[in-house]
Specification:
Elements (H helix, E strand, L loop, with lengths): L1 H7 L12 H12 L15 E6 L2 E6 L21 E5 L3 H5 L15 H7 L1 H8 L4 E5 H7 L3 E3 L14 E4 L4 E4 L1 H18 L5 H13 L4 H33 L12 H21 L2 H7 L7 H150 L2 H20 L3 H21 L4 H21 L4 H11 L8 H20 L3 H11 L8 H17 L5 H10 L3 H13 L3 H10 L5 H14 L3 H13 L5 H8 L7
Parallel strand pairs: 5-7
Antiparallel strand pairs: 1-2, 3-4, 6-7
């Protein structure tokens, strides 16, 4: 408590400060918050300036981005555009501790009524040490909530102001920047006015006071408040003392001396001056009591009082000079900014003048071109007349050409039909050729007749050519796999053909690897290949598996570089089919997806969330965005995301759709979803019960 007394001893004089709350506000505006370095709002550290609006001085924030542009009633939120005066210790907290302010029927009086019946409350209400500037909408939402040191949530509405207003617990979470001054204000109000604090509150504020000492700005504001209070008290004391002296120095009827009119005038001036000097030296009472005894020494006393008066006035004018110098410096800065703006405007004017000159030149050119066109029109008029005369002759020719064009269009249509038919025929032919090759191979196995082998190879070459010409990569894959299995059989059963057939098989797979590398971005093809090669002899096609791994790794890296993390992870899972003992590629893809989520998961706004999910293919971010949209009441965006984006969580999708349609009061869609789930065999009975009885949070 000793430390607290020392800390606040400098502000004890505010106990008998200004007469009313309105007086306090005027003094704070005109004598305390007058320089740019102090003109910042308490919570948000938002700079503000004093302007004259409707003939009255008003404080307005600079460059403040409103938290809510409109109120709940749809009206413009004007409190976001003004600075209000905030009590750090809410008025309601100490009003309830004033016995005179309790109503006999229960409840409490309002502020104005309480101030009339309780001088103590009136002083507490007007105490400048408890009043700071704050943005109006923040002041309104803070209400009478008490401060707490709990952590501010990541997505708090007022996080940039260093606070979080929790309407459920009716508490305001404050950052370390605010804790020190808030604690000192609560302890000061408790010591000055006996405001009650619980032991837990007092211990908390004492700890904050020790941990977060006064800043330079807080000290400067406190010093200016003290100076303003002192000035106000001195002026008030002079007025009271002057009135008392004038009353005490009236001539009594029993007096032996009668002052003439000139001496009465001098006496009045003397009492004023002596009072001022006495107040400055702290001995007003003695001088007031004995002033009438020194009337014979009017000359000397007047000189002493005059010197004191001059000193007092000098202090006042010195303070005014300081304020004027600060205003002059502010005006100079404004002048510099205006000069810079003027120079910028001049540059813009020069650019505009150049553009105007360019436009004039362009107009002159257009005029010249128009004149040339007019001459050409006149020259061509005769040709037009001749053309009209010839048009009758050419009419029959045009009709003939039209008929020819119609015939050509019909021929083109017939050709397109033939092309489509040819494509179908080619598809049938290649399948037929391929099947004939397989049949010839089967006859070769049974008869060992090499003529069948030659015929089979010829048929396979024909079908392969058809596959290549039509760029049917999947067909080629099936072709090569069938050929490989048959060649593998030949190698194992026909030792005499081993060398020839193995080389041919190897060449086939090299050709297939080259084709895949030309078009690697095909997850379905890679999946088919991984499944197929698992049935083949690893030693015989090891070179192909190596090539396939390289292509797959390249595809995964490309997907990660394109921010398509879900595709990368899907391909990595396919890769593990032939690399069961080595899941490094899968770990790499999973880590890339998780790192991407950690980097962007803290959305700052609805616009930021939309930008992130559109640039990144990541189911983790999609889920986070849905929750963020719901919290920000951006239900349409959440709905679009649930309908269009991949989530890998069908339960979350269904629950989200039901809750959002409930929020939008679209019961028809809710019923349709519930009916669809009940009829579907893809959902468990538990999920069906959850959807029917789902209780969605209203917040």
């Amino acid at each position: 408590m000793k430390k607290i007394f020392i800390l606040y001893s400098g502000v004890m004089l505010s106990l008998f400060a200004y007469d009313s709350y309105n007086s306090t506000i005027k003094k704070l505006m005109n004598e305390v918050y007058t320089t740019p370095d102090l003109m910042y709002s308490f919570y948000c550290k938002q700079p503000f300036r004093k302007v004259i609006k409707d003939g009255k001085p008003t404080l307005v924030p600079l460059k403040h981005r409103a938290f809510d542009t409109h109120t709940q009633n749809g009206k413009e939120n004007i409190r976001a555009k003004r600075i209000e005066w905030e009590h750090i210790v809410p008025v309601e907290n100490f009003l309830k501790q004033i016995p005179e302010c309790r109503k006999p029927s229960g409840g409490f009086l309002d502020r104005a009524s309480c101030a009339k019946v309780s001088p103590k409350f009136k002083k507490m209400l007007a105490d400048p040490m408890n009043i700071v500037p704050a943005i109006g909408e923040v002041n309104g939402e803070r209400k009478n909530y008490k401060p707490t040191g709990d952590k501010i949530p990541k997505y708090s509405k007022h996080k940039r102001c260093g606070i979080h207003i929790d309407k459920e617990t009716k508490r305001i979470h404050v950052s370390d920047r605010l804790k020190g001054q808030i604690a000192r204000t609560y302890l000061y109000m408790s010591k000055q006015y006996g405001m009650k604090l619980s032991p837990q509150e007092r211990a908390k504020y004492q700890e904050w006071n020790r941990t977060f000492p006064e800043t330079a700005q807080e000290k400067s504001i406190k010093s200016k408040k003290q100076a303003s209070i002192k000035k106000y008290k001195n002026a008030k004391a002079v007025r009271q003392a002057s009135a008392s002296i004038a009353e005490n120095t009236k001539p009594k009827s029993t007096s032996n001396h009668t002052l003439k009119k000139p001496y009465k005038t001098k006496l009045t001036k003397l009492t004023m001056s002596i009072t001022q000097k006495a107040l400055l030296k702290g001995s007003a009472k003695g001088l007031i009591a004995g002033v009438s005894q020194y009337i014979p020494y009017i000359g000397v006393a007047t000189q002493i009082a005059w010197d004191a008066y001059i000193g007092y006035q000098l202090e006042i004018h010195t303070e005014k000079i300081k304020i004027n110098e600060q205003n002059i410096q502010t005006n100079r800065n404004d002048i510099k900014i205006n000069e810079q703006n003027i120079q910028t405007n001049r540059n813009d004017i020069k650019i505009n003048e150049q553009n105007i000159q360019t436009n004039r030149n362009d107009i002159n050119k257009l005029v010249e071109e128009q004149e040339i066109l007019n001459i050409k029109i006149e020259k061509n008029s005769a040709d037009i007349i001749k053309a009209i005369q010839l048009s009758a002759i050419n009419k029959s020719e045009i009709e003939l050409l039209t008929k020819n064009v119609s015939d050509i269009s019909w021929d083109i249509k017939n050709l397109k039909t033939e092309v489509e038919q040819n494509r179908e025929d080619i598809h049938i032919i290649k399948d037929t050729e391929f099947q004939i090759g397989i049949n010839k191979l089967n006859e070769y196995y049974q008869t060992d007749d090499k003529n069948y082998l030659s015929q089979s190879i010829s048929q396979f070459e024909k079908s392969k050519a058809l596959f290549k010409n039509n760029i049917e990569l999947v067909g080629l894959i099936d072709y090569y796999l069938v050929i490989t299995k048959y060649e593998d059989y030949i190698i194992s059963t026909k030792e005499k053909d081993k060398k020839h057939d193995f080389n041919k098989m190897k060449e086939s797979y090299k050709e297939l690897a080259d084709l895949i590398e030309q078009k690697p971005d095909m997850l379905g093809i890679l999946n088919s290949l991984y499944v197929a090669v698992g049935d083949l002899d690893n030693e015989k096609i090891q070179f192909f598996k190596t090539k396939l791994k390289q292509v797959t790794q390249k595809v995964i890296e490309n997907k990660i570089s394109q921010s398509k993390f879900d595709d990368a992870l899907d391909i990595a899972q396919v890769y593990t089919l032939i690399e069961e003992d080595n899941n490094n590629i899968y770990k790499k893809a999973y880590k890339a997806k998780q790192d991407n989520f950690d980097k962007y998961k803290n959305f700052t706004s609805v616009e930021n969330a939309l930008e992130v999910i559109n640039k990144n293919q990541n189911t983790l971010l999609n889920k986070m965005a849905i929750r963020f949209f719901a919290k920000e009441r951006s239900m349409n965006n959440a709905l679009i995301l649930l309908k269009t984006k991949r989530l890998d969580d069908e339960n979350l999708r269904i629950k989200g759709l039901v809750c959002i349609y409930n929020y939008l009061n679209n019961q028809n869609m809710v019923k349709q979803i519930q009916q669809m789930i009940q009829k579907s065999h893809n959902y468990s009975q538990k999920m069906k019960d959850i959807v029917l009885n789902l209780q969605c949070q209203s917040k």
